[in-house]
Structures are given as structure tokens and as C-alpha cells.
Design a protein that fits this description.
The structure holds two protein chains of two kinds. By secondary structure, chain A is of the alpha+beta class. Chain A has two domains: 229 residues, 3-Layer(aba) Sandwich (Rossmann fold), CATH 3.40.50.300; 123 residues, OB fold (Dihydrolipoamide Acetyltransferase, E2P) (Beta Barrel). Chain A has eight helices and 21 strands. In chain A, the strands form four sheets. In chain A, strands 6-7-8-3-9-10 form a six-stranded mixed β-sheet, sandwiched between helices. Chain A has a six-stranded mixed β-sheet with strand order 13-12-11-15-21-14, with no helix packed on it. Chain A has a five-stranded antiparallel β-sheet with strand order 16-20-17-18-19, with no helix packed on it. In chain A, strand 9 and strand 10 form a beta hairpin. In chain A, helix 3 crosses helix 4. Chain B has a single domain, classed as Orthogonal Bundle (MetI-like fold), CATH 1.10.3720. In chain B, helix 1 crosses helix 11 and helix 3 runs parallel beside helix 6. The radius of gyration of chain B is 22 Å and the shape is globular. The two termini of chain B are 23 Å apart. Classes of the chains: A alpha+beta, B mainly alpha. Chains A and B meet through strand 6 of A and helix 7 and helix 8 of B. Chain A: This is Spermidine/putrescine import ATP-binding protein PotA. Chain A: Belongs to the ABC transporter superfamily. Spermidine/putrescine importer (TC 3.A.1.11.1) family. Chain A: Part of the ABC transporter complex PotABCD involved in spermidine/putrescine import. Responsible for energy coupling to the transport system.
Chain lengths: 367, 268
């Protein structure tokens, strides 16, 4: 998904030390970040982390207590929501229930001086773009959740905003529909080339859809990176825990000179690259490892890098995958690993002894 | 039915409630000045007498004027208060909205006496306008309660969406909010209208002696000869109420159908 071309695009949104207070509550605590033009950007975090508030400061629904928000180089201070070059898709979709689908989609064109025929054409095009061709005359309330979602998209995109803001747009859909809409949103974003900013608490959704993701906790951006970096090199245990699953093992730093040599429980001595070391050095030292970076070795297979012995403590069968809790020899708690159920590969039993292959390159050191 | 006692209770309750009303049209068409069984024959004389009563017509006109003006003013004031209480947060909101809706449980007698004292001491002469003043005071709480419910059922993001799509606060109100709370506005208007038209205490206290329907009917009931034509008037009022109820229900259902909401009760 990573779109490397986005890095040399101009800035579309810039936050400079943005703070927001609700009375005594400090909702945004010094947000500084830039979002590039044409980027699919996600604000990811648990509920109450300030992601929706941040989105609403772009839309103009929320004033900021201090700092600066720039859209396309212009300071948005004092610029009302109805004149900002942004449009929003609301979590509840906010489809006007007393209007038809085409009246909803064409709502933003009401003040546009273009002719009636041109407006009708624009509405038809917008509906076709979201896959609702021929639905114009329907009553808005007669639509399914997915269709409402599309109407909300068409209604926002018809104004050709510089930025499209999406506030948890898929959270109300069922799993199948959500996955389908994820793909469609990506396609739509590539087609129109508009900057999309998505708010979500679903880390998988953010990974699938985004060029870059800002992970937020308690009103601050914890890490801003492309999905792969975020997944493979989370900069804190908190980010690592929030995005996917990560196994942590206590560790001790033995020496550092460029590279860092550590002794990690269950893994023994490993030498790590500086890029694998995260944190300021004030936290407790541990190494982290994603479940898919450990592989059970079956008969005849050998490790390309490092190999350890382990005992199976738990087996969870998912059909396409099997999850194992393995206790590496010398460890005081198990690590969770995932194995794809390739045809012919046996599923191990609880209590079985097995060899596991892993690579120091997949480890991240937090300190 | 598991509880036969409850069933008879329900039936007796409904009889007690509606049977007297059925007597109105029966005696309105009964060819006798005495309101008693057995019935003596069919006549439309009482309706003719009612129609010919010029005082009654003035009373009806006055009452209608009072009711329409009261319903309009109360509903407009109700819209302001409901919108302010649902959409905005301000200091002292709780107590202020509480005080606005307090007349709901305040005896009308008190309102009437207090207003009369104030008006007289201010040297304001009594007229149908002083009655309207009193009625607005009594009806506004109902309007506020009904409209608060209507505004509360609005998703706030609808408003933001319209604003986001380029509309001003005023045009958002006109294009989105007003149409969606219209069923509430109609209910409020009809309820205020009904309260005003049959209100007696304030109309009696704050009236200038100009005939007002409720006061006029009460006055006429003292003369047995006038009772049958009052029965005829009662019949007309019952029909009018039913018509209003049907209109209100029609708009309520239409409003629900239009917005695809779920029907959660109503009258009919």
C-alpha cells in the first residue's frame, strides 16, 4: 500500500503546535504534523485520543485553543466551516432524511451558479462514481447502510474539495461490507486524487487503506509513519500493542557501539541494528516480536538464521491459520505465533516439543 | 385474557370517559327542551337556534382569534426555547428551562389572579389581548416540551453536514432543521390551540365581558331553555376536535414516513 511518491508532494494540511482545551480537559496536546496533497492519511487511536477532535479542527467544527492549522498554505484561523475547502463524511452519514438521493447529493451545489442541467449532470456523475447509478429518485431513508455511505461520499465529493474528511465512515457497516468499502474508498481516492483524511480506531482498516498513519494517544501523536514502518518498527510498546499483536520479552543491554548487543529472555544473545532500537532509554528494556516472524520448523526444515527449542502451550485453530502459544526454553511466559495452514502441514498438539526459526532482524528493542 | 377484572375495569373506564360525550349529539337532535330520556323525536331546531345566536358567533370568532394567535405565539416561543435548550449550553440553562415549563404544574387560578392584579395595577384595560397574554403563558410550556422532543430527535451532524456543504446557519435552519421538526411544530400548534379554545379560568378572569366561547357556554347552561342549543354547539366542537386530531395524526404519520423513522405511538 505504501505510496513512496507522496513524500515529494506539496503540503495540504499543516498543524503547528495545535492545542485544544474543553474547560480543564486538554484534548489536543501540541499536534505538529503535515499531511501531503493527494495522500490517504489516517488518524488512528483508541476512543478519546483526540483523533475526531483533530479532524473537526480541519473541518472548522472545532476551534483550537492555540496553534495554527493551515490548509493548502492558508491559515484557517477565523475561517468558518462552510467556506473551508474541505468536506466531511460523517460517522452517522448525516443523510438528509426528507430529501431524495439526488437532492442529497446535489445539496452542496444549491448556491453554485451553474445551470440546472449541469447540476443534474454533476449529480448523475457523482452517483455513478460511487456505484449508485439510477438511484437518484429514491428516498434517502430507504437505503441500506452501505448505500447511505455512498450517498454521503458522493455528496461530499461533488464539491471537489481539496480535502475529504472521513469520520469513522465504516464503523457502522458489517464486516463484509466494510472490507468491500475499504477497497472502494482506496480506488475512489486514487481516481479523484483528493487528499483523504480518515479517522478510525480500527488498526487493520488504517493499515489497509493509508499511505501514512498518525497513531494518537491522549491528545498527542505517538508515531506518524507509513503502514509498514508502523507495523515493523513501532516506536513504543504502546504503539506496538495497539497495532497488531506483539510479543514482548524482558531483555538486558550488554553493550552498544553503533550496534546494540542484548540478552533477551528465550532468545539469548542478539545483536541489533540502531534502526531496531526504540525509546529514550528511560523505560524498561524489552524486545518485541510479531507472531508471524517466528516459524515452527517441521521435519527436514532448517532455520536460515536462528533456531530455538520450544514447548507448545496452547493451540487455536482458525481454519486458514493456527495460533500457537510457545514457551521458548528459558522463558518465563509464552510467545504467540501464527502459522498459515498450508496443505499437508500438521497442526501440533499441546505439550509437543518443537524447533522454531526466527531472525534477529525482526526484533525491536524498546527501552 | 388472564385477568377478567382488569378487562371490565378497562371497559368501565372507557365508558365513563366517552359515554357522556355521546350524549351530546343525542340530545342535540332530540325534539325536547328537557334533556332527559326517553327521547321524543328528531329535530335540527337546536342547530338552527345555535346558528342564529349572534352572541355565540361573536364568542366563537373571539375564541378562534385567541386560539390561533395563542397557538402561533406559543409555538414560536417554544421553538426558540427548545432550540436553545437542545443545541446550546449556557449558564443557568437548567433553572431557566425549568422555570419556563413550570406553569405546566402551576394552577391556572394562580396565573389568572396574579396577571389580573398586575394588569389592573398597570392600568391596562382587559380585552381579548389580555386573554391571549394569559393563554400564551399557559401554552408555551406545552410547546417547549413538545418541541424539545422534536429537536432532540434530530441528529446534530445533519446540521453540520449542511453547514459543511456551504450553507449558512440561517439557511441550514430553513432547509434542514425546520422541515424535520415540522411534525413537532404542528403538534405544538394544535395542542396549544386546543388548550386555548376550551380554557375557562383565564378567559373568565382576564376577559373584558366580550363573549368568549367557554365562558359563554358556561353562562348559558344556567338557562334550561338554552341547554339543547349548547348541546348542538358541543356536537360541533366534538366534530371539530376529531377533525383536528385526524389532521394532526395525518401529518405525524406523513412526517414519519418521509424521514423513514419508526412509529412509536400516536393517537389513532
Amino acid at each position: 500500500m505504501t505510496n513512496t511518491a507522496t513524500t515529494d508532494r506539496p503540503d495540504m494540511i499543516e498543524f503547528r503546535d495545535v492545542h485544544k482545551y474543553y474547560g480543564d480537559y486538554h484534548a489536543l496536546r501540541g499536534i505538529t504534523a503535515t499531511i501531503k496533497a493527494g495522500e490517504f492519511f489516517s488518524l488512528l487511536g483508541p476512543s478519546g485520543c483526540g483523533k475526531t477532535t483533530l479532524l473537526r479542527t480541519i473541518a472548522g467544527f472545532e476551534s483550537i485553543s492555540s496553534g495554527v492549522v493551515l490548509i493548502d498554505g492558508k491559515n484557517m484561523e477565523g475561517v468558518a466551516a462552510n467556506v473551508r475547502p474541505t468536506n466531511m463524511v460523517f460517522q452517522s452519514y448525516a443523510i438528509f432524511p426528507h430529501l431524495s438521493v439526488e437532492e442529497n447529493v446535489g445539496f452542496g451545489l444549491r448556491r453554485d451558479p451553474m445551470s440546472k442541467a449541469d447540476k443534474a449532470k454533476a449529480v448523475a456523475e457523482a452517483l455513478e462514481m460511487v456505484g449508485l447509478k439510477g438511484y437518484g429518485k429514491r428516498a434517502a431513508h430507504a437505503l441500506s447502510g452501505g448505500q447511505r455511505q455512498r450517498v454521503a461520499l458522493a455528496r461530499a465529493l461533488i464539491l471537489k474539495p481539496k480535502v475529504l474528511l472521513l469520520d469513522e465512515p465504516l464503523s457502522a457497516l458489517d464486516k463484509k461490507m466494510r472490507e468491500q468499502m475499504q477497497v472502494e474508498l482506496i480506488r475512489l481516492q486514487r481516481q479523484v486524487g483528493i487528499t483523504f483524511i480518515l479517522v478510525t480506531h480500527d488498526q487493520e482498516e488504517a493499515l489497509v487503506m493509508s499511505d501514512r498513519i498518525a497513531v494518537m494517544f491522549e491528545g498527542q501523536i505517538a508515531q506518524l509513519a507509513d503502514p509498514e514502518t508502523l507495523y515493523r518498527r513501532p516506536n513504543s510498546r504502546k504503539v506496538a500493542d495497539f497495532i497488531g499483536t506483539m510479543n514482548f520479552m524482558p531483555a538486558k543491554i550488554l553493550s552498544e557501539n553503533g550496534k546494540v548487543e542484548v540478552e533477551a529472555m528465550g532468545f539469548g544473545r542478539v545483536e541489533l541494528d540502531a534502526s531496531q532500537v526504540m525509546g529514550s532509554g528511560s523505560g524498561e528494556v524489552s524486545v518485541g516480536l510479531r507472531p508471524e516472524t517466528l516459524t515452527i520448523l517441521f521435519e527436514g526444515q532448517t532455520a536460515t538464521d536462528r533456531e530455538s527449542m520450544a514447548t507448545v502451550e496452547e493451540v487455536v485453530y482458525y481454519g486458514d491459520m493456527t495460533y500457537y502459544d510457545l514457551r521458548l526454553d528459558g522463558a518465563d511466559h509464552p510467545v504467540r505465533i501464527s502459522m498459515r495452514n498450508v496443505f499437508g502441514r500438521p497442526v501440533l498438539d499441546i505439550g509437543a516439543r518443537t524447533r522454531v526459526a526466527w531472525s534477529p532482524g525482526a526484533l525491536v528493542l524498546f527501552r | 385474557m388472564k385477568f377478567p377484572i382488569l378487562r371490565s375495569y378497562a371497559i368501565i373506564y372507557l365508558l365513563f370517559l366517552y359515554a357522556p360525550i355521546i350524549l351530546l349529539p343525542i340530545f342535540a337532535f332530540n325534539d325536547s327542551k328537557i334533556v332527559a330520556f326517553p327521547l321524543s323525536g328528531f329535530t335540527t331546531e337546536w342547530f338552527g337556534q345555535m346558528w342564529a345566536d349572534s352572541q355565540l358567533r361573536i364568542a366563537a370568532k373571539n375564541s378562534l382569534t385567541i386560539a390561533v394567535v395563542t397557538a402561533t405565539l406559543s409555538t414560536i416561543l417554544g421553538i426558540f426555547a427548545a432550540r436553545a435548550s437542545v443545541r446550546y449550553d449556557w449558564k443557568g440553562k437548567g433553572p431557566i428551562i425549568g422555570l419556563i415549563t413550570l406553569p405546566l404544574v402551576l394552577p391556572e387560578m394562580i396565573v389568572a389572579m396574579a396577571l389580573l392584579t398586575v394588569l389592573l395595577s398597570m392600568g391596562i384595560s382587559l380585552s381579548i389581548w389580555t386573554i391571549i397574554l394569559g393563554h400564551v403563558l399557559v401554552c408555551t410550556p406545552f410547546a417547549v416540551v413538545i418541541l424539545t422532543a422534536a429537536f432532540q430527535s434530530l441528529d446534530r451532524s445533519l446540521e453540520e453536514a449542511a453547514y459543511d456543504l456551504g450553507e449558512s446557519a440561517a439557511s441550514t435552519f430553513r432547509l434542514i432543521i425546520l422541515p424535520l421538526v415540522m411534525p413537532g411544530i404542528l403538534s405544538s400548534f394544535l395542542i396549544c390551540f386546543t388548550i386555548s379554545i376550551d380554557e375557562f379560568i383565564i378567559a373568565n378572569f382576564l376577559g373584558s365581558g366580550q363573549p368568549i366561547l367557554s365562558v359563554y357556554i358556561f353562562g348559558n347552561f344556567r338557562f334550561p331553555a338554552r341547554v339543547p342549543s349548547m348541546m348542538a354547539l358541543g356536537t360541533v366542537l366534538v366534530l371539530l376536535s376529531i377533525t383536528l386530531l385526524i389532521i394532526a395524526e395525518y401529518f405525524r404519520r406523513r412526517g414519519i414516513a418521509k424521514t423513514g423513522g419508526k412509529d412509536t405511538g400516536g393517537f389513532l
